[in-house]
Amino acid sequence: MSGLQKLDLLLDTENKQLQRLNEIVIESIEEEKLISKKLYEFEDTHPPFSGKVADRMASFGGSWLFIFLFLIVMSIWIVANSFYKSFDPYPFILLNLILSTIAALQAPVIMMSQNRKEVKDRQRAINDYLINVKSEIEVRNLHQKLDLLIADQMKTLFEIQKMQVDLMEDIKAMLSPKKEI
Length: 181
Description:
Shape: rod-shaped
Largest sheet: none
Number of domains: 1
Oligomer: single chain
């Protein structure tokens, strides 16, 4: 096998290694798309009507707008029943009943909303864990691939070095005068 043939063989080997690495990168990208697609599918794009109502009521019940409106309504109620002809005289028993009813209804609605958010958070935590495990596996795989690549490159370098030594010996043999016996 001549030096040029050996060189062509080495270049073909390098080309095959680069093609293998390219395929590995493409596979990794496709796997990432699959994971991101799965995570996107988890997102609650069509929650049930009761869930929507619970979330909206909980967000309104925990807002400053609700607090201000509630204070205004309470103030109007107390002023109207204290100074004008009242339908709920002091100690405001009807107001007490309304406030108790609101509190009794608001607490379970807020709990339903919190439970929905807890389920979402739990699923996100599971997804984060799975991504971390996959990342750890990918890092290990990358280390193995790098070790393999380095070993292949070392083998190739030794072959190139051997070819260079052979070529140098051929050149030396060609340049040195032949001794006749």
